[in-house]
Amino acid sequence: MNDQSNNLLEMRGITKYFPGVVANSDVDFDVRYGEVHTLLGENGAGKSTLVKILFGLYQADKGDLLLRGEKMEISSPSDAISSRIGMIHQHFMLVPTLTVAENVALGMPSTRRPLTDLDKVSKRISEISEEHGLTVNPSETVAHLSVGERQRVEIIKALYRDAELLVLDEPTAVLTPKEVDDLFVILRRMADNGRGLIFISHKLREVMSLSDRITVLRNGQVVGATTPDQTSREELAQMMVGRAVRLTPDLPPNEVKESRLSLNNVSVKNDSGTLAVDNVSFEVRAGEILGIAGVSGNGQREIAEAIAGLRTIEPDGLIEINGSNVSDTNTRSRRDQGLGFIPEERVPDGAIPEFTVGENLILVDHETDDFVSRGLFSFDKISEHSSQLVSDFNVKTPSVNTPTSSLSGGNIQKVILARELSASPSVLLACQPTRGVDIGAAEYIHNRLIEQRELGTATLLISEDLDEVLGLSDRVAVMYEGKVIAVVSGEDAEREKVGLLMAGVTETVDA
Amino acid sequence: MSDFFTSSVLVATFASAIRLATPYLLASLGETIGQRSGVLNLGVDGVMLLSAFFSYWTVLQTGNLWLAVVVALAVGIIMGVLYGIITVFFEATQGISGIGIFIFGLGFSDLMFRQQVGTPKPVQRLPSVDIPVLADIPYIGEPLFQRSLLTYLAFALVPLTFLLLNKTTFGLNIRSVGENPQAADSLGVSVERTRFAAILIGNSLAGLAGAALVLQLGIFQPNLTQGMGFIAVALVYFGAWRPLGVMGGALLYGLVNATVLQWKSLGIIPVSISDLAGMAPAIVTIGALILLARRVNAPAALTKPFSRH
Ligand SMILES: Nc1ncnc2c1ncn2[C@@H]1O[C@H](COP(=O)(O)OP(=O)(O)OP(=O)(O)O)[C@@H](O)[C@H]1O
Ligand SMILES: [Mg+2]
Q1: Where are the beta strands (DSSP E) in A45-161?
Q2: Rounded-to-integer distance, Cα A402 and Cα A397, Å
Q3: How far apart are CA A390 and CA A357, in angstroms?
Q4: Which atom from ligand 1 is nearest to the alpha carbon of A16?
Q5: What gap in Å lies between CA B80 and CA B207, rounded to an integer?
Q6: Between vectors from CA A425 to CA A421 and to CA A426, what angle results, nearest 5°?
Q7: Alpha helices of A168-213 — where are they, by DSSP H?
Q8: SS3 letters across A220-251
Q9: CATH value at residue B31
Q10: Cβ distance of B188 and A95 shorter than 8 Å
Q11: CA–centroid distance, residue A72 to ligand 1 (Å)
């Protein structure tokens, strides 16, 4: 059957409409046996939609799907799974309260019906782990696993179902550089064994290193196809966005003024009561960006929450915003002191998905006279204000009355950014501001942060994207196991040196 | 007070605690299964009233106790189908739909009773069945092993529910759709079918609870349950969504109830405050809930309707 073509998958003329958007428009896409075919495109370009159609989560309005040369109807995930299609979703599809083995066994027939056969499943998991180098303990509860381990469980789930065509929708968005390297070794080996892989990522460095072929989508249409040796990161960026993009921000010199945010001996406990931030002190001054680099889980989340007022600090610590002690105050009064906050989790921390774009844009200052007259919302003013922000910040949405949940991740991020920056904060706390965001939007967000710096905002940037931290920061603080183990100035911060510090290696570096 | 601490009174109190716990236990185990699949059913009380009435009526007409139990089960299944269609297929808000089921059950059982029966007439009760040998053990033989078959069933369902939830593929499906229905769906588990089945089981047990209640009393009156179904829902939270915990709650509730009744009949509680004392079980439960308020998490998708878009 694969003599007429050696295509594992062929999608022809796929078209999909959502209210107000054409998510896919006449898309042709194919995958050969043994290759990694990357789908590239801005937020909202239609990548997830295309692969969700393949997996039976959405139905195409038009178009054909051929699997191993034969025309197929895939109307549900179970159809996809029985056709040996596996999918790693953009968001983890794991049940945190269940064990690894239970997550893997879910939905599979058991040999001991009606009982589960978890012993057998665990044995098979261990075999798969060994064969593919995916170390994970089958009897561990998923809630206790690190993000990297969860990703491995997702892959094991697909391999356990003997997937021949594997879709990976932004599998690296939450992984550390080391975890990404490990993952790529595994993926490459799977392709070499004859499987077909569809890979989706915004990180061009990754795309160039893993792909055999690259197809670029823009506004739901295929705008080009290429291979890594025929192209460059710059060219890919241009294809995606439709204009030239600067991939690394440059930081113009800037005058640094008074201290705006200061932390003194701040310790913070995490949810399980252990010390996640251990006696940390630093200050951020007007007109500078202080970047915090570190592998995820070294206290960054907790310190951000402590500054935002979402987590209490241990008694002897002190947090000051613009000279006033805010250690024990709530989020509202910290915002009144001039704090802007871009949280790590866009949803539900940064925006309420059920609310419209307009409502999310006024979430922080909806009580001010700008939007209220005689005790009632003035919808004219609200819609005028939010339309302005939507156009200023280039948010892709059918209207300001669209529910935020139907926007792509990058566009939700822009909504949050628009809201926080429009209040002209004097201190800005930006956590993972470009995670899962396409390069066009990332460039835009970076420029906005730099602009804010020129306006004199003191910015604390917390990011796991090392390139981002190094490119944007006047000073880089490295966090390791809850402590700031080094602060280096932006110019001295070399990738290798900071990478070593992130792994806790301090000996080779002058402190 | 010393009257209470005689062995015969204590044994009798314990026996009535087990008997009183039975309908709570049946209903809460059913509710546990439903909630683990992500469906809150506040209509338990209404289902219990309906099944209690229809099984009472069946005994009144036919004198056949086992037919009465089957009728109660059937009422539970019918109400389960109804609730399943409302919440799973029409994705209605669960809280308010459950209240609707409750009001319907309250009103319809009342109406049927007034039209078909009028004045309460006692009927035969569920016989107790002695378990050979065990029934003769001093002190514990009577309360534990001289009970009705429905009581034995209720307690046997505790380990069975545990096994169902934790050791079967169906139980795995139930737990996963209650925690993360998107994940279950992505693996080809039908969220709709799993939840529907869990609702059916839950309502069947609520039906049996109604039968147990009325057939232990041997009489029906309007609003016989007086909110027992709601207590059963509370016991699920009390028991942290685990069959053993739920059993503990049902037993505690039964014991406090039985003690209050016993104290009333012994005159330890004066008649003047006996109505007040009737609130003791609720107060004890609330108190225990506060004391035990551990950080156990409810099924993450509880009360959340599922759809793919
Ligand atoms: N369920 C839905 N309902 C309505 N609109 C949707 C839905 N899913 C996606 N869309 C819209 O379809 C378009 C394509 O979205 P899609 O999620 O496929 O983008 P993407 O390329 O995966 O973006 P990202 O890189 O942000 O993940 C977007 O405009 C999005 O708002
Ligand atoms: Mg996507």
Answers
A1: 62-67, 70-71, 85-88
A2: 7
A3: 9
A4: 12
A5: 10
A6: 145
A7: 177-192, 204-210
A8: CEEEEEECHHHCCHHHHHHHHHCCCCCCCCCC
A9: 1.10.3470.10
A10: no
A11: 24
For chain A, the straight-line distance linking the first and the last C-alpha, in angstroms and rounded, comes to 64
- The residue among A75, A87, A106, A110 with the most chain B CBs within 10 A of its CB, best to mutate, is A106
CB contact under 8 A, B184 and A106: yes
Phi, psi of B221 (to 5 degrees): -145, 160
- Asked whether residue A250 is domain-assigned, the answer is no
> What ipTM does the predicted assembly reach?
0.89
* Structure tokens that stand for B106 in this block: 């309250």
Q: What is the pLDDT of residues B161-190, one digit of tens each?
A: 999 999 999 999 999 999 999 999 999 999
CB-nearest partner of A93 from B173, B186, B297: B186
Cα(B97)–Cα(B43) distance, integer angstroms:
8
pLDDT in tens, A321-375: 999 999 999 999 999 999 999 998 887 788 998 899 999 999 887 777 778 888 8
H or E segment to which residue B52 belongs = helix B44-62
Which of A103, A107, A110 is facing B188, going by the closest CB pair?
Answer: A107
Q: Ligand 1 atom closest to Cα of A396?
A: 29
Angle between helices B94-116 and B65-84 (to 10 degrees): 140
Q: What is the whole-number distance in angstroms between the Cα of residue A49 and the centre of ligand 2?
A: 7
Mean pLDDT estimate for chain A? 90
Residue with tokens 């609130």: B279
Q: CA-CA distance, B53 to B72, in Å (whole number)?
A: 9
Looking at the structure of chain B, the number of domains it has is 1
Take atom 2 of ligand 1 and give the residue whose Cα is closest: A406
Domain holding A299, by residue range, is 259-510
What pLDDT shows up at residue A3? 43
Q: Yes or no: say if A356 and A403 are a contact pair by the CB < 8 Å rule.
A: yes
Nearest CB partner across the interface for B180, out of A77, A87, A95 = A95
Give the distance from CA B68 to its chain's centroid.
17
CB contact under 8 A, A76 and B188: yes
Closest residue by Cα to residue A223 from A410, A409, A40, A54: A40
Residues 171-230 of chain B with CB under 8 A from chain A are: 171-173, 175-176, 179-180, 182-189
Token pair listed for A141:
């509860």
Determine the distance separating the centroid of ligand 2 and the alpha carbon of A90, expressed in angstroms. Answer: 6
Inter-residue contact A475 to A291 (CB < 8 Å): yes
Is the entire prediction scored with pTM above 0.90? Answer: no
Residues A57, B308: C-beta atoms closer than 8 Å: yes
pLDDT in tens, A294-330: 877 789 999 999 999 999 999 999 999 999 999 999 9
Tell whether A473 is covered by a domain: yes
Which pair of structure tokens corresponds to residue B308?
């793919």
Confirm if B76 and B51 have CB atoms less than 8 A apart.
yes
Identify whether A439 is part of a domain.
Answer: yes
Same domain, A29 and A58: yes
Number of domains in chain A: 2
Query: Tell me, what CATH number does A22's domain have?
Result: 3.40.50.300
Domain final position from A241, A267, A285:
A241
